[in-house]
Design goal:
This protein is of the alpha+beta class. About 70% of the residues lie in helices and about 10% in strands. It has helices at about 1-25, 60-90, 95-130, 135-165; strands spanning about 30-35, 35-40, 45-50, 50-55, 130-135. Strand 2 and strand 3 (about 45-50) form a beta hairpin. The longest helix is centred in the middle third of the chain and has 36 residues, at about 95-130. The radius of gyration is 20 Å and the shape is elongated.
C-alpha cells in the first residue's frame, strides 16, 4: 500500500510540477482588449498584438506573485525528488513524509500567489480594462494547486500507513 500511495503522490506531484512551471513561465494569465487590440499578460511580461514587453509597472504584487510561484515550483520539485528517492533506495518513510510536506507547502505557496494575483487583477486591472478575462496560464496554476494538495495528502497517507503497519518479519 505504501508504494501505491507514494507512487500516486509522486505522479500527481510530477504533473503539478509541470503545470506550475508552465503556468509561471507563460504569458497568458490574463487576456484583455487594449485600444482595440488583443493583449495578454503573464507574470514576467505583457503582449499586445503578439509583441511582448517586460512589465513597466513596478508594483509589489508582481514581485510577490512571482516569488511565491517560484517558491512553489522549488518546493514541488523537492517533494517529487523526495518521493522518487524513496523508491530508489527502498522504502524510506521519512523521505515520503518530507516529500508530502514539501508538496503541501508548494500548494499553499501557489495558492497564496494566485490569491494575490486574483485580488489585484479584479480590483486594479478589472477596473482599468472593460473586456478582460483570466486565461489558461492562470487556470493551469489552479489545477496545479489541486494536484499538489492531492500529491501531498497521498504521500502523507503513505507515511502514516507505513508507520502503522507492523514490521514484516520473515522466518528462515
Amino acid at each position: 500500500m505504501l508504494y501505491t500511495l507514494a507512487g500516486g503522490g509522486t505522479l500527481c506531484g510530477l504533473a503539478a510540477l509541470v503545470l506550475l512551471i508552465v503556468s509561471t513561465a507563460t504569458d497568458f494569465w490574463m487576456q484583455y482588449r487594449y485600444s482595440g487590440a488583443s493583449a495578454n499578460q503573464g507574470l514576467w511580461r505583457f503582449c499586445i498584438n503578439h509583441k511582448c514587453h517586460a512589465h513597466t509597472i513596478t508594483v509589489a504584487f508582481w514581485d510577490a506573485t512571482r516569488a511565491f510561484m517560484l517558491l512553489a515550483v522549488l518546493s514541488c520539485f523537492a517533494g517529487v525528488v523526495l518521493g522518487l528517492s524513496a523508491f530508489a533506495n527502498g522504502t524510506k518513510s521519512r523521505r515520503v513524509r518530507m516529500g508530502g510536506i514539501a508538496l503541501l507547502l508548494s500548494g499553499f505557496l501557489a495558492l497564496l500567489a494566485l490569491a494575490i494575483y486574483t485580488g489585484v487583477t479584479v480590483n486594479f486591472f478589472g477596473k482599468r480594462f472593460l473586456d478582460w478575462r483570466f486565461s489558461w496560464s492562470y487556470i493551469l496554476g489552479w489545477v496545479a494547486i489541486i494536484l499538489t494538495f492531492v500529491a501531498g495528502v497521498f504521500q502523507l497517507c503513505a507515511y502514516q500507513k507505513n508507520i502503522s503497519e507492523p514490521p514484516n518479519i520473515q522466518e528462515s
